[in-house]
Amino acid sequence: PRRIMRRLGKVSDIQSFSEVRSIERSTERRSLSAGPSLSRLRRNAADDFFEKEKSPIIGQVRDSYILVEEKNCLKIIDQHAAHERVLYEKLKNEKERVKKQKLLVPVKIELTLKESEVLKDNLKTLDDLGFDIKKDSKNFIINSVAAGLEKIEINKFIKEIIDDLLNSDRIKKIKDAREKLIASMACRGAVMAGDKLEPSEMEELVEQIQSGEIKTCPHGRPVAIELNWNEIEKKFGR
Amino acid sequence: PRRIMRRLGKVSDIQSFSEVRSIERSTERRSLSAGPSLSRLRRNAADDFFEKEKSPIIGQVRDSYILVEEKNCLKIIDQHAAHERVLYEKLKNEKERVKKQKLLVPVKIELTLKESEVLKDNLKTLDDLGFDIKKDSKNFIINSVAAGLEKIEINKFIKEIIDDLLNSDRIKKIKDAREKLIASMACRGAVMAGDKLEPSEMEELVEQIQSGEIKTCPHGRPVAIELNWNEIEKKFGR
Predict the structure, then answer these.
(1) Is the domain of A111 the same as that of A154?
(2) Of B146, B167, B189, which residue sits at a domain end?
(3) Hey, which of A40, B121, B131, B199 has its CA 20 to 30 A from A48?
(4) B120-131 confidence digits (pLDDT tens)
């Protein structure tokens, strides 16, 4: 099945990062083929950004990992594990009710009898987690989603959540209904391995990982591995 | 001392690679803040390039290594070792005389007596290697350099070569004068660790490494190390 296209959050004002970065390089060292008028346009857009700091992001590999240049190591971030944990913490830490994002057009979802029952049992908890879902005569109508998950394919997302509740061993083992839904939502809502990310999306994800204490995904898998520069240099015989 | 600024070779027609790459991503998935007119400008410049193939270069780290995404591994290329070997092979394989690049303005170089003698002893070999250097009354005048080394700081470069001939154990051990000069020229002419590279320069260097059988620098150090994707995935518990 086609992968869910979604965004990590708000679109940044700056041009995509790597564009800006390479422009910066061209202008600081020498001018290549890039016309000066074009460069100037970009710089203007980026000025605010560079007054802050330079991003350590090198790029995305295999559409699955984000490479980050740190002082002591080359860090490889697993985009899915990292985003899953970020979503998990976000949903979990909203002590009361998760902020809702009203859909411009409510989405109708058709379910089997079995699926309907599972959904019905979880409507209250889903509501607390930002999903306003009402029972129609035969179907369900989704009126709002959790803020931060605006860009998911809502119909597919809800079916995957129900599927998790019915089938996923990992989820079924959790006793608390809210926790069960959070675990499923975080996994299903996170970017997948194989999803191309915009530079701004990478920036945002890396920022969330670097600033916090996030070391593993909710299942305990590491969100990042580190290759020490000293070790790399040793391999090169330096 | 300030690092020598130089180029690996001809400037490519396309915009810097990572700019083009991220533009491609924006337009294929969704439009970010980049204005359409700007994107169109870039696409036009890049169209020819994308008809060929997509580069596997992710970027440069620590201004020293080039990261390349390969099917089976993440390849980390040592830019200095790689370029040194490329120059070495190029100079070595020109069986007769290396092509000369005439300098627009001949460069005068002042030397100590000892340095002058070493240079004088090697003028014929240097001429074969593309360096046309004439003795003035007191100084030396450089009229041409080896093609491919046009962008070196010629004065500094020649002094480093002389320095190698006088002091470097590695060079002194080599008996053949031509071989001695080639080894020194390759090392001194190559980009250094710490030199920022343009995307087009990375492209060119990586192409030369990937296409050939180059595994080590002239001293036997590896030009690249490979991190297998399977191993990386194992570390992530996948």
Answers:
(1) yes
(2) B189
(3) B199
(4) 999 999 999 999
